[in-house]
Design brief:
Length: about 325
Amino acid sequence: MRVIFAGTPEFARVALEKLHAAGFDIPLVLTQPDRPAGRGMKLQASPVKQWAESAHVAVAQPRSLRLDGKFPDDAAAAREAIAAARADVMVVAAYGLILPQWVLDAPRLGCLNIHASLLPRWRGAAPIHRAIEAGDLETGVTIMQMDAGLDTGDMLLVEKLRIAPQDTTGSLHDRLAGLGGRLIVEALELAACGGLKPVVQPTDGVTYAHKIEKHEALTDWTQGVAAIERRIRAFNPFPGAAGLLDGQTLKFWRADVLAGTAPPAGTQPGQVLAAGPDGVDIAAVDGVLRVGRLQKAGGKALDAAEFLRGFEIRPGMVFSHAAAGEPA
C-alpha cells in the first residue's frame, strides 16, 4: 500500500517511523515549512521533515493547500506531487494545515487522521492539554476517516488510555504518540483487506480542545487548588504555567495539592505561606498548593531547594493573579 504522510511535530514523526518500519511504501511526506527556533532563531526543519530526509523520502512543504488561497502556487505544486505519488491513502497526524476537499478526495481510500482523544470529546488543536486540564481520567487515540468538518469524520479504530495522576502533557503525549503509531499501522493493515468498519461519531459529548494561547499560562489563584495543579501539568512543557512575584515571572513545572490543608483565615489567594526545601506553599481560594519545581526568566528549571538558594521567596509575599484571559 502506498501512503502519503502529512504531519509536523514529534507526535507525527513517531507514527511516520512506525509506518515505515511496518513496510508501507511512503513516496511523499507533507509537512509545515521550516520555522525559526532556538535562541538564534535559525530556520529549523520539523521532526517529520528531519526523519523523512534521513530516510530519503520526498518532502513537500506547501504554505497552503487551497488552490484559491493566498499561496496558489504552493497548492498547485502540492497537487502535482500528490498526484504523482499515486497513493492509496493519506495519513494525517498533527499536520497544521486544513485539507480542502480535493486533498480529501485524492487518494483511493481517502485521508485517515490520528487524533489524540476519544472522539467526539476534545475535537480540535490541543486534545492532550485540555484532557489533563479538565481532569479527565482517560483519553486515547481515534483513527478517523477525515471529512470537511473539524474532527467530525467516522471513527475507524479507538483505543483508550488511562491518564495517570502525575501525567503532564509531555508524558501523556509520548504514550499517545506510541499508541497512535501502533493503531495507524493496524488500521492500514485492515484497510488493505477491507476490514475497517466506520462508526459515525455520536452527537452527544462533543467538546472542543481550543488551541493553547500563551496568555493562559498566568495562574489565577482565585481558582480551586485542584484546577491550578491540573493546569500546571497540562501546560508542561508548553507554554508553562506561570506566576508573577514582585514583577518577575516565575514558571511552575511541578506542584502538589496539600491534602486536607486550608489556607489560614485572612489569607489572600496567591499568598506565600511557606518556602523551603520541599517547595513553596501558595494559598489558593480553597486550599494550598506546594510548588516543587520553578524557573525564573532566563534561568533553568530547578527543584525548590536549589531554586530558593538563588531567588528569595518569603512567607507573606503575594503572587499576582488575573482571571483567565485577562492581563495581570
